[in-house]
Every structure is written in C-alpha cells, then in structure tokens.
Amino acid sequence: MEWGPLTREDARPLAELWAAIEAEDMTGAVYSADDVAERLSSRLLDMAEGTLAARDGDRIVAFGCLPARQSAGDVHLMQLWGGVHPACRRRGLGRRVIDWSLRAAPEVGAMVHPGVPVEISFDVFDDRPGTRVLAEGAGFTAARFFARMERSVTGDLPSARPPEGVSIAAWSPELDDGARHVRNEAFRDHWGSVPHTPESWRHNLTGSRNFVPEATFVAMAGDQPVGVLVTHFFDHKFALTGERQAWIQIVGTLKEWRGKGVASALIAHALSAFAAQGYTSTGLGVDAHNPTGAVRVYTGSGFAVTRRCTVYVRSVS
Fold this sequence. Notes:
CATH topology of the largest domain: Aminopeptidase
CATH architecture of the largest domain: 3-Layer(aba) Sandwich
Number of domains: 2
CATH superfamily of the largest domain: Gcn5-related N-acetyltransferase (GNAT)
Number of helices: 9
Radius of gyration: 20 Å
Strand content: 25-35%
Order of helices and strands: EHHEEEEHEHEEHHEEHEHEHE
C-alpha cells in the first residue's frame, strides 16, 4: 500500500471505491465522479493535510477526508468521511485512517477556527458491528442517533394547508438568502449543527449540481420566509437503481412558527410536486432525538424509518 493525500484528480477512483463500499454496506449513499469532485472542491477541505488515501496500484482502497466546518461555536465538530474497500477490510486500514484523523484534526481545525477545541465525529450504521468496534477501540463514544426515513410518492398523499397568513412559494434566487437565514435559525438548537455562510450554503445546497430548484420551497408569511424545504436529486443513483428519489436535504421552520403546521404544509406541498415531476419516492435524514418533534411530523406525513445509524464522537484537543 502507498499512503498519501488525495488530489482533486482522484474523483473517479474514489467514486469507484465508494461504489464497492456501497454495494457491500447498502447505506443508500451513491456518489458519481462528479459528486465526489464537488466534495473535493470545497474550500474547507485542505487536500494536503485533511485527506489520506491508501493506493494499491492505480486503485484507492481506503481513504479519509476531514473537512473543516464553515463555522464553529464552543467546539469545532469535524465530520470524518471515509471507508475501506470490502476486500481489504480487517487488515488495519480503517484504524490507520482513524489514527491519522486524530493526529490531523487539531492542526486542520486550527487553520480555520484557531483556539476552538476540536472533536471528530463519524457515522456508524447499526448493522455494521465491525465499524462500531473500530470506533470504540479508538476511543470514540456514541453521541447521537439518526435515522433515514423514506416513503413512496405514488398513491395517496397527505394534504395539509399552511396556517393562516402563510403561503408556499417555489424557491427563487431572490428568496435564497432568506431561506438560508431560516435554516440557520431553525437549526440553531440542533445537535452538531452550525450556521451556513453564504459560501457554504451555495456549495453544499443551492449551488450544488444535485440541487432541484423546482422541488425546493419556501413558506412565506407576507414577504418574510418562515420555513424552507430544500431538495436534491442524485442522478447517479437513478442511473444505477432506476429509482427517481427526491432527497429532502433540509426541512426547517423558524422557532416562533413551530407547532403551527408550517413543516407539514411544506412536506405535503413537496410530495405533490414530487409526484407531478415524476419522482417515485422521497427520503430524508433525521436526528432521532430532534427537539422540534420532527420525527413525529415525518411519521405523520407517511415516512417510515429504513436505516439507523449512530454518530460517534471523540475530543482531540
């Protein structure tokens, strides 16, 4: 094995590695070479110090990416994205990636948020006991539980009217900054969430190659955005599986508008739009202990849990 940083020219071999990982683990995360290239292009990912790859000839068989967060509060929580080819597991490659991340995180984090304590997190799906043993053996502890929820958009769909004085508008560039503000305020009390800057919002959400503007909606009280639902579509997943799934990246409501039916109305509106636009299913991820009651809203809208994972965290400074 040859170990060293990734480069931005590694998008295709990294996508091929991820395809092998997904075929084994079936997490639902499918990345094309273009998707990987978009992730590697982030200004918050230091390619030299924040990435590591194991190469076997011209193949990448293990990797780790440790991007900085766009903003930080009392702690800079950095999420490790990585994996090992199924044929190369149980050889210590995953532990080497994790040990590298523990050494690299303080320096990488300090470049962006100097003086802020750093923690590393990574996701462990509940049916991957080997990864759980790896996390716990490296000193990580379970911190939070998340679920993937999905539903069909064929057949009967829920109907929900917005509360009085609220209307649902299609996303437009003029509403984009207001939508970002709603997301930041709505997620202010969510575990692990930090505010999006205009740059990170565009890179990860409304400027992403996967963004679907016609399936993204903003709840308006007069001319004031009070709720937002952002949708992405992963064309590579459709090419592989034939499933046209509208993935809901964000559902958020301003705190003062919670409990009034804004989120339910956004979801019902989106489901009807998804059906009209030819999607067959939709999905989203949710914190199982979300303080806003989001799980209840999604269940009431016909979503059901299809996968669970645990976020493991360790402090490194």
